[in-house]
């Protein structure tokens, strides 16, 4: 029996991507097992191993896990459950390789689970954070390079390197064949920035614009993602920018992990391309593990995103500086530019009853933005939360109007 390829991805937010990978693998003659470690949203495609099964394998039932509202505990359970299931499927002879796709949380789950597979068993992690501020950044940069750990030092061909080199050779040949077969869709690409805490807004806006015939290219606003966006705009691939998740501006002002550098939010403006921005995700700073936080940061509201990342609420003076920086970027735009403000909150956790709800801090950004924004840049205040459909529709409509006007 030919072993199957396991595909790990949260099917509420990564369903279409998992389905595409699944179909490509099947077209090459391998069957698949789709594992869904998602928690909250509704899966968009069927799973072979459901999230309920994953939670049980991690020692909890899914309804009680959701009811507890503890994100850190949910991550632990789904990581342990996915790892246990993948190890069992390999031991039973069902699985002969694995691929995972995800952002910060998806990478934490997928990469940890795949470590349960022996050396030589293919493991591929398609991650938005593979070139973040860590050891990989100088080597990967803003390219789509794949890193494969050699495991043993490169000192001849032996019992370990024979397997690793074999996988590497097979992968590069298969990638070259696949790349030559790729055809453009013919649709106009629009870049959009996204984060876990702004995903509902991005998905809704994406749906609206795709219905108008556009192709939406998402960039994880994790520092590297923003630099990738700026690069592809300058290379001519992206024709308009819907900057929904501007967390990287906060990262730059507050020296957080998600800092895309001084060129963030400049390329579209310099080239005169349509630019629609929102302060999505500016209400928090992305920092390292809780143990690495300063005493001052520990006094603020914080959320443990995963074992390696802690989100800390942005202070009022920091929000004001982010507003001024956003104004300077938008003022330099040579083409149509607009900023839409969701007055009900800037991220999933910036709303009544949640950790980052602070209307006065958000107001500091809005006031600073208004004070410095050039009158020719449109400013729209929307009485909605960033993830409300009404706000997403307003962003998508403004983007459409700029692209078609």
Task: Report on this structure.
The longest helix is centred in the N-terminal third of the chain and has 21 residues, at 71-91. A hairpin with a 2-residue loop joins strand 10 and strand 11. The protein has 15 helices and 13 strands. Helix 2 packs across helix 4 (71-91) and helix 13 runs parallel beside helix 14. The chain folds into two domains: 4-147, 3-Layer(aba) Sandwich (Rossmann fold), CATH 3.40.50.12020; 189-404, Uncharacterised protein family UPF0261, NC domain (Rossmann fold), CATH 3.40.50. 42% of the residues lie in helices and 17% in strands. The chain has 405 residues and is an alpha/beta fold. A six-stranded parallel sheet has the order 6-5-7-8-12-13, sandwiched between helices.
